[in-house]
Amino acid sequence: MTTTRPLRVGLFCFDGTEELDLVGPWEVLTAWAAVSPLRPQVLTFSADGAPVRCAKGLRLLPDTSAEQIGSLHVLVYPGGAGTRPLCIDHEHLAWLRAQRVTTPVIASVCTGALVLAAAGLLAGRPATTHWAAFDELAALDGSVLADREARYVDDGDVITSAGVSAGIDMALHLVARLEDVATARAVRREIQYDPAPPV
């Protein structure tokens, strides 16, 4: 991706964020920032900049707020139990639709796809989510072309990934797409990520 301004990636966080949905991609993207000549800026943000309590109790202090985050090249939207209230928060959905206009890539992890669907961002498009959330996805937007097998689905300006750990795969794909495959492999080695399950 050729840019005239520094590459900026924002990871949105909210009460009830699934921890690894956020921290997995953050680990990949900050490892990328440490080795890449592109020097991407990777930031976390919440709606108001206040700390959030994640789904299993981890407390996070975001870097900034939605109002202060500024323009992004990539918005990463995690999942978790906290997505359900956001799916019916009309002000938040309007904000997300506005982000779609100005942000080249929006990438969801797990049930983050539900909020994208509620905002109308997945209408008629291929997408994936957590294996247990496909019925919810269909209820929000029956036109979504659900992919129940993929770890992630890249549909150009919108990328969705399956549950929890699939966000790491998606983030590595983002590195390969925004820079190159060799760099993505270097990042994978740096974080010693081996997707073969031990059990």
What would you say this structure looks like, in words?
The protein is of the alpha/beta class. The protein has one domain: Class I glutamine amidotransferase (GATase) domain (Rossmann fold, 3-Layer(aba) Sandwich), CATH 3.40.50.880. It contains seven helices and eleven strands. The chain has helices spanning 19-35, 83-87, 90-102, 112-118, 134-140, 166-178, 181-190, and strands at residues 8-12, 41-46, 52-53, 59-60, 64-65, 74-77, 105-109, 126-127, 145-146, 152-154, 158-161. The strands form three sheets. A seven-stranded mixed sheet has the order 5-2-1-6-7-11-10, with helices on both faces. A two-stranded antiparallel ribbon has the order 3-4. Strand 8, helix 5 (134-140) and strand 9 form a beta-alpha-beta unit. Helix 6 packs across helix 7 (181-190). It is globular. 44% of the residues are buried. The model has no long low-confidence stretch (mean pLDDT 96).
